[in-house]
Amino acid sequence: MSTPTSPRRIAKQARPITLALAAAFLISACESGPTEGELAARAETENLKSQLLSRDSIIGEMAVSFDEIEKSIAMMDHREIILGEITTGELDHDKRKKVIKDLQLMNGLMQENRDRIAELTKRLDKSKIEASGLRKKLKELDAMLASRDSSISIMKDGLLAKDFRIEQVSQQLTAMELEVAKREAFIEQQTNEMNAAWYVVGTSKELEERGVITKTGGFIGIGKTAQMNGDVTNNEFIEVDARSTARVPLGVKKARLVTEHPKDSYRIVEEGNELAYLEIKDPKMFWKLSRYMVAEVK
Questions:
Q1: What CATH number does domain 44-192 carry, 1.10.3470, 1.25.40, 1.20.58, 3.30.750?
Q2: What are 9-45's pLDDT values in tens digits?
Q3: In whole angstroms, what separates CA 195 from the centre of its chain?
Q4: pTM for the full model?
Q5: 3-class DSSP state of 137
């Protein structure tokens, strides 16, 4: 006669079976993979990441493009100033040639920037991202181009009156010619900036009111020393080329330099009963200590 099996013994014998069933269930779950809900959540996360990366990429690239367009507009402004200086006097063959070259460069820059703004706008529309700041910047740049286009048109009309041909002032450069012209203009602009100098002439009161000079020291308002204000902007000065500026007009009874310049590098020329002008004898030496000249006159 068999002996009855105790409950504890039955449970002990059943444990391996339970463990085996649990392992089988886990293996089955692993083999079946994530649920549809999990897959959908993962896909949504990856999609959001992709959108954010795309948005950041577009914003970064546009910021670079905006900077390049603004530099291009600054180059056009610089060429316009140079053209204005050239066309005020008589135009010989070399000057006419430079005017045509600069105008063709400006035509190319204008078209290049317009095409770039159109492409950036198209890309922004296609991206479908909310970027009101980017659209506002594009409109600002477009308005800046429109303003330059208007001033260039006025300049062209003036040149046509000086016997320039319409095809000369309207000609477009090829892509390669434009790149070469841009590189040459950039080098010339850098050279001019390196050789820029500034001067201002005025009475003590005028210079102080405009923030060009400050006065320190002295006693109860007497014996103060004037010196150039380090925070004054270039807008208060007349910009010149340090290499070629030989004279600074004065037309006063008395004059003295507030800024420091070697005495052997200049002289103040008297004509009649007044100090007519300051003559720069050695430009390199004159501007060595300071690129600014402040003359206080009476």
A1: 1.20.58
A2: 544 554 555 555 555 555 555 555 667 665 666 665 6
A3: 20
A4: 0.65
A5: helix
